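Project outcomes to date are best conveyed with an example. Our students and postdoctoral researchers have been running inverse folding experiments weekly, and each run begins with a structure described purely in C-alpha cells. The record below, which covers 440 residues, was selected by the lab manager from last quarter's runs and is presented without edits.
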C-alpha cells in the first residue's frame, strides 16, 4: 500500500454511501483500470462485475474517450453555459437525439443523475404553469424508487434509508406501490408475468388528490439501486395509458438503464414505452467525466418558447452544464459504443447471462433471482437481526477473490461492462457461488 493510502492518511475523507469505519480498517483502494479489470494498490487484478457503479458501460480506459478528453483540455478547458456555448455541446445533442425514442428530441445538460432528476421535476412543474395549469404541483414517485440524493430526488424516491434522516423534504409528494411481488414472481426470467395491475395504484392517487393537482409521475423502468426490480409485463404500458388519460407527464429515470444496459440504447425502447421526459447520466460519458442530461419532447420545449425572445425561458442550469471536457468524453463514448455495437450487445448476451445468474437459485440462502439485459439481482435471506450483513460479507469475500460486485440491502447486483465475454460472466457467477457457500 502506498503512503497516500495508509489508514492514517485517510482520516480527512468522509466517504459517500460507505461504512467509513469498516473501510478504513481494511481499505479497498483501486489504482488503475483497463478493459474489464481494475488493479488495486496491491497490484491485484479485480474483475469489474458492476461497470464501476453502473456507469462504465464500454469498459475502462478506452482510447477514443481518453484521447477526446486530453485534446479538449488542451483546446478549450471551460466555456460559460449561460448565454454562451461551444460547438461540442450542439454536436453531442444532435448525436444523442439520434439514439433516443422518437419525439424525445431536446437535450438539457446537467452534471449528474441527481441533477438530471431535479431538472426533470422542475421542468415538469414549470411546463404545467406555463400552460395555465399551475395547480399541477404534485409529484408522484414510487416506493423503493431511487432518484438520486438531492431533495427533489429523495422526496420522490422511496428507499427508507435514503429518506429517514432528512425531515419532511418536499411537500406535495406521494408514492405509488412498488412492483416487487416475491410470492408470485420469484425466480422470473426477464419480465415477471404478474403485476401489470399495480399500475392502477396511480388511479388511487388521482382519486385522492385529483388529476388537476398532479404534474408528473417518475419511475425507473428497472429499479436498480433498490435491488434490480424488473417491471411486470404490461406495467409500464398501463402507466403510460393512465398518465395520458389524466394529462400527467411520465418521467423515466434511465440513469442506470440508459446506454445499452437492457439491450437497446434505452429501456424505453426495450419495453416499448416512450415517456415525456427521460433522465440520463452514468453511461453518457462511460463514467469518465461527470455529466447528465434530460431529454424532453418537442411539445414540452415549444411550450417554454413563449414571451419576448430576449428573456430567459427556463430559469435553471448549472455552472458546468455542457462542460467542454464532459461533452468531449460523451462524444468519445458514443463513438466507442457505435464502433463496437455496444448499445445492443446486451440483447445478444442476455440469454447466456440469464442462465448464468439463475444457476444461483439453488445456492445457500438465495430467495430470488431477477434479470433483464445485462443486469442481475440475487436476493438473499437476511441474517436474523442483522439486515444487509450477509450480502456485505459476500461482497467482501468476492473482492478478496478478485471480483467486484455490488450490494444493496441483502440483494447482490450485477451489471458488468457491455464488453464482457461469456467466460468472464462465468467467472463472476462461479466466484459468487463459492462466496455464497462460504457465507451460509
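After processing, the design step wrote out the following sequence:
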Amino acid at each position: 500500500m502506498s503512503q497516500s493510502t495508509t489508514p492514517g492518511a485517510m482520516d480527512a475523507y468522509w466517504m459517500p454511501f460507505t461504512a467509513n469505519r469498516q473501510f478504513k480498517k481494511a481499505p479497498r483502494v483501486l489504482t488503475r483500470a483497463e478493459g474489464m479489470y481494475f488493479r488495486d494498490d496491491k497490484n491485484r487484478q479485480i474483475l469489474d462485475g458492476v461497470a464501476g457503479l453502473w456507469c462504465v458501460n464500454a469498459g475502462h480506459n478506452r482510447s477514443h474517450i481518453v484521447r477526446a478528453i486530453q485534446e479538449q483540455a488542451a483546446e478549450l478547458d471551460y466555456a460559460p453555459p449561460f448565454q454562451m456555448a461551444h460547438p461540442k455541446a450542439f454536436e453531442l445533442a444532435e448525436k444523442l437525439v439520434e439514439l433516443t425514442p422518437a419525439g424525445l428530441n431536446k437535450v438539457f445538460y446537467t452534471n449528474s443523475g441527481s441533477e438530471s432528476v431535479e431538472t426533470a421535476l422542475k421542468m415538469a412543474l414549470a411546463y404545467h404553469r406555463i400552460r395555465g395549469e399551475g395547480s399541477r404541483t404534485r409529484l408522484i414517485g414510487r416506493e423503493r424508487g431511487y432518484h438520486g440524493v438531492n431533495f427533489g430526488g429523495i422526496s420522490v424516491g422511496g428507499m427508507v434509508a435514503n429518506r429517514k434522516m432528512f425531515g419532511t423534504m418536499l411537500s406535495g409528494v406521494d408514492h405509488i406501490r412498488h412492483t416487487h411481488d416475491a410470492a408470485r414472481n420469484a425466480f422470473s426470467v426477464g419480465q415477471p408475468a404478474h403485476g401489470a395491475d399495480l399500475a392502477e395504484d396511480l388511479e388511487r392517487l388521482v382519486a385522492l388528490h385529483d388529476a388537476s393537482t398532479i404534474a408528473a409521475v417518475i419511475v425507473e423502468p428497472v429499479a436498480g439501486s433498490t435491488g434490480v426490480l424488473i417491471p411486470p409485463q404490461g406495467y409500464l404500458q398501463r402507466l403510460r395509458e393512465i398518465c395520458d388519460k389524466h394529462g400527467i407527464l411520465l418521467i423515466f429515470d434511465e440513469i442506470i438503464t440508459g446506454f445499452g444496459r437492457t439491450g437497446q440504447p434505452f429501456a424505453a425502447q426495450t419495453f416499448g414505452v416512450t415517456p415525456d421526459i427521460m433522465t440520463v447520466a452514468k453511461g453518457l460519458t462511460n463514467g469518465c467525466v461527470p455529466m447528465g442530461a434530460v431529454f424532453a419532447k418537442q411539445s414540452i420545449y415549444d411550450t417554454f418558447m413563449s414571451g419576448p425572445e430576449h428573456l430567459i425561458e427556463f430559469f435553471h442550469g448549472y455552472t458546468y452544464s455542457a462542460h467542454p471536457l464532459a461533452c468531449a468524453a460523451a462524444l468519445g463514448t458514443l463513438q466507442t459504443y457505435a464502433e463496437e455495437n455496444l448499445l445492443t450487445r446486451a440483447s445478444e448476451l442476455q440469454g447466456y447471462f440469464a442462465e448464468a445468474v439463475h444457476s444461483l437459485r439453488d445456492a445457500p440462502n438465495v430467495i430470488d433471482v431477477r434479470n433483464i439485459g445485462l443486469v442481475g439481482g440475487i436476493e438473499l435471506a437476511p441474517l436474523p437481526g442483522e439486515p444487509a450483513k450477509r450480502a456485505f460479507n459476500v461482497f467482501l469475500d468476492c473482492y478478496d477473490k478478485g471480483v467486484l460486485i455490488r450490494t444493496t440491502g441483502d440483494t447482490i447486483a450485477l451489471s458488468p461492462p457491455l464488453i464482457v465475454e461469456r467466460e468472464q460472466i462465468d467467472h463472476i457467477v462461479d466466484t459468487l457461488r463459492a462466496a455464497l457457500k462460504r457465507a451460509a
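The chain has a mean pLDDT of 97. Residues 130 and 377 are 42 Å apart (CA to CA). The training component of this project remains on track.
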